[in-house]
Specification:
This protein is mainly β. The protein has no helices and 15 strands. A 4-stranded antiparallel sheet has the order 1-2-3-4, with no helix packed on it. A hairpin with a 5-residue loop joins strand 10 and strand 11. The chain starts with 18 loop residues before the first strand and ends with a strand.
Length: 174
C-alpha cells in the first residue's frame, strides 16, 4: 500500500510473496525496492503502480534492506547470505554475514550496520555490502534479540525484544 499523507492508503500490485522490507533509493536508482521471504525482489519508480519483478536473489527470507546512495543491501534472516544491487534488477552475492539470524540493516553514512538475534550482543558492519563484515560487541550485553536498527548519519538506534520479556534500545555514535 502507499500513501501521500499516512492517513489515506491505496493498494498496489506486487508479485505474490510475503514482503518483509522496503526502502527507497534516491539518485541513480530512483526507485523503491522490496525484499521478501522468498528469492523475489520487486521495484517501482514511484511506489504507486504495478511493481516490477527484480532480479532473483539467492537463498531466501530477506528481512531487511537499506540504501547507501549507490547500492541496495539486503540481509537474509535464515542464512549468512547477503545480496547487493545498484538497481534491483541484478543482484550480486555480498559479504558473508556473521550469523544466520540477521533482522535489521541500516546505512550509517559509512557502513551498512546489521543487527541480529544470534550473538545478540554483536553488530556487524560492512562498508559496501561486498567487503567482509566486522563484528562489534554492543554495550547492552543484558539485552538480546536485536530486531531493528536505523541511523540518521550520526547516531544508530537499535531495538530488541528479549526472550525473557526485557526490551531495550541502544544508541551508538560510532
Amino acid at each position: 500500500a502507499y500513501s501521500a499523507d499516512g492517513i489515506t492508503w491505496s493498494a498496489m500490485t506486487m508479485s505474490s510473496a510475503i514482503w518483509r522490507s522496503v526502502t527507497y533509493g534516491a539518485g541513480a536508482a530512483n526507485r523503491y525496492v522490496a525484499v521478501s521471504s522468498t528469492t523475489l525482489s520487486n521495484w517501482d519508480a514511484d511506489g504507486t503502480g504495478t511493481w516490477t519483478n527484480g532480479g532473483a536473489m539467492t537463498s531466501a527470507n530477506y528481512l531487511s534492506i537499506a540504501w547507501n546512495g549507490t547500492r541496495f543491501f539486503a540481509c537474509s534472516g535464515s542464512s549468512t547470505v547477503s545480496m547487493y544491487s545498484t538497481d534491483a534488477t541484478t543482484w550480486t552475492t555480498g559479504a558473508v554475514l556473521a550469523n544466520s539470524t540477521s533482522r535489521g540493516v541500516a546505512w550509517d553514512g559509512t557502513n551498512f550496520v546489521i543487527v541480529s538475534t544470534t550473538n545478540s550482543v554483536n553488530t556487524s558492519r560492512t562498508p559496501n555490502g561486498s567487503t567482509a563484515v566486522t563484528n562489534t560487541t554492543m554495550a547492552a550485553a543484558n539485552a538480546n534479540n536485536w530486531t531493528a536498527v536505523c541511523a540518521n548519519g550520526t547516531t544508530l538506534v537499535a531495538v530488541s525484544s528479549s526472550s525473557n520479556l526485557r526490551s531495550a534500545a541502544i544508541t551508538s555514535t560510532d
